[in-house]
Amino acid sequence: MITPKRRKNGFEKPYSCIQIVSLCIAILTMLNFSLLCVPFLPYSDFVNYIQIASVVLLIVSSLLTSIFWYHTSVVDPGDCINRDSGVYCEICAKCVHVTCKHCRRCNKCVEDFDHHCKVVNNCIGKKNYRLFIGLLVSIIFQQAFIIIFTTIFIVRLLKKNIKSFKKDSFKGLNPEAIAFFNFLTLLMSIVVVSSSMTLLGMHIYLHFKGITTYQYIMNKKSNEPVQTEGGNTNKNFHKDMDLTKIVPACK
């Protein structure tokens, strides 16, 4: 039997379809906002404070999102160090930490395994969980800014009747086309920010519960309690490991 290659991070093949689609959506929304929204926002009497604020906020939030996305993707969350005690993974053929789970997509054991994120195409565990939360927060802020300023632009069009605008006001571009792309961007941003806020809320809930996403899902499937990281409760963690070949007992 040929053992699948161990994936180090999210930049290694095979790439996830959701990863590619997410990148395309992020690039398209930022390009549309920068080229077809910001230049046409209303001006003040002296300085276009709204344009300046929108550009600065977009740059800062996009930079933070890019940084968190890159580091969440590039980190190898795998547990590559043999342990003197813990559990034995038959696939990795070594002892690993008790909170490890073997991810079949990445073919590696991940300490404090939370879930395999298809958006970054990488496992989320002890080494990159905080980066993942930072990514969610930065995405929410970035998309919220886009929603706010895109809404300002669309409301401005609706109030003044889009057909009354001259093409000169839009640098020779078709006002209807600009409105359509801004509306499309608004819809995509609403979907992104809604799903990100829901996911962040879930992780806040799980944090207070003291369990991971994987433990929560397996607990829902089996209707059995799970073991918290502190190990103070009388709960069965290894039931959550039934999809792996990890067995207790490294001495």
UniProtKB/TrEMBL annotation:
Localisation per UniProt entry: Membrane
PROSITE patterns assigned to the protein according to its UniProt record, in alphabetical order: DHHC
EC assignment: 2.3.1.225
Regions that span the bilayer: 20-43, 49-70, 131-158, 178-200
GO molecular function: protein-cysteine S-palmitoyltransferase activity
Pfam families: DHHC (PF01529)
Palmitoyltransferase DHHC domain sequence ranges: 85-219
Catalytic activity: L-cysteinyl-[protein] + hexadecanoyl-CoA = S-hexadecanoyl-L-cysteinyl-[protein] + CoA
Matches recorded under PANTHER family: PALMITOYLTRANSFERASE, ZINC FINGER DHHC DOMAIN CONTAINING PROTEIN
Comment text on domains: The DHHC domain is required for palmitoyltransferase activity.
Official protein name in the record: Palmitoyltransferase
